[in-house]
Write a structure and sequence with these properties.
alpha/beta, seven-stranded mixed β-sheet, 7 helices, globular
Length: 280
């Protein structure tokens, strides 16, 4: 008898918890996609995360995260812990981005983060019809319908894996432009803001070619922030925790400049590159 009552109480508590996250109003949804520097390796050394969460990445009841099982929860670092499962995740740019955006634009309401990044993936693995592309669409659509929401932007940081092969580096710009166009088309949002990151590092010898491609993207409502010069972990590839905090604020500034009619003072270093001052 007691076991039946306990099971009934447990089921009720889960229902209340689900309602808490689905009946909280329309979310401002942000897709986090790319590879390891988007999923976050800040504070990860030799496969172990140090567990340090800076104040800029603190949990906030106004920030939610879409879990791998497509349910919402309060967002906490590491954001990609159940999505990018083959490597140890640490601090990424998502929480710093969200907290900075909310500090400066309370009109956004609840922020819903949709982690989709997977480490070690080149741009060809994100092409339309592939598993990563399909997973991104599936999670984005679930986010919109699971409690209601509007996708405000895609935050994209990828390209390190495309620096290893000269042919891939040369083809990168066209592949990236097609990816942006395909995602916008399939999400039925042709002017969806995309904020991409120009590489701070790479796995191969052709970093400059990929960076040039990223910085020269000329699509409407696409902006680029430049991560070059941000602090790296000892591996020389991944942004450190401090670097991720800076990047999060740079991404937030770029997003706010797209959305706001007046210029937003930037926290980005002078090396940051931004294209398109507003909607086209």
């Amino acid at each position: 008898m007691y076991s039946i009552v306990w099971l009934m109480l447990l089921a009720y508590s889960k229902l209340v918890s689900t309602e808490k996250f689905t009946n909280e109003g329309t979310k401002s949804i942000f897709i986090l996609a790319g590879q390891s520097n988007m999923s976050g390796r800040g504070g990860v050394v030799n496969g172990t995360w140090d567990g340090f969460v800076p104040p800029e990445c603190r949990p906030n009841p106004m920030i939610r995260r879409l879990r791998s099982d497509l349910t919402w929860e309060e967002a906490r670092e590491p954001l990609h812990k159940d999505v990018d499962v083959n490597k140890t995740c640490g601090i990424g740019p998502g929480m710093a981005f969200s907290n900075w955006v909310l500090e400066r634009d309370l009109g956004l309401g609840v922020v819903g983060l949709v982690p989709c990044a997977v480490g070690g993936t080149d741009i060809s693995r994100w092409s339309r019809g592939g598993s990563l592309y399909n997973q991104l669409l599936h999670r984005a659509r679930a986010a919109m319908h699971g409690g209601g929401g509007l996708i405000r932007a895609i935050l994209w940081y990828q390209g390190e894996s495309d620096t290893e092969n000269l042919e891939d580096a040369k083809l990168y710009k066209g592949r990236l432009e097609k990816f942006f166009a395909d995602v916008r088309s399939d999400l039925m949002s042709p002017m969806l803001p995309v904020i991409q990151v120009a590489l701070a590092s790479g796995q191969g010898s052709y970093v400059d070619i990929v960076r040039k491609a990223q910085l020269e993207i000329e699509l409407p409502n696409v902006r680029c922030v430049d991560a070059k010069g941000l602090p790296l972990e000892p591996d020389g590839l991944h942004l450190s925790t401090a670097g991720q905090v800076q990047l999060g604020r740079m991404l937030a500034d770029a997003f706010l400049q797209i959305m706001a009619p007046l210029p937003v003072p930037s926290s980005a270093p002078k090396s940051a590159h931004n294209f398109f001052s507003g909607l086209v």
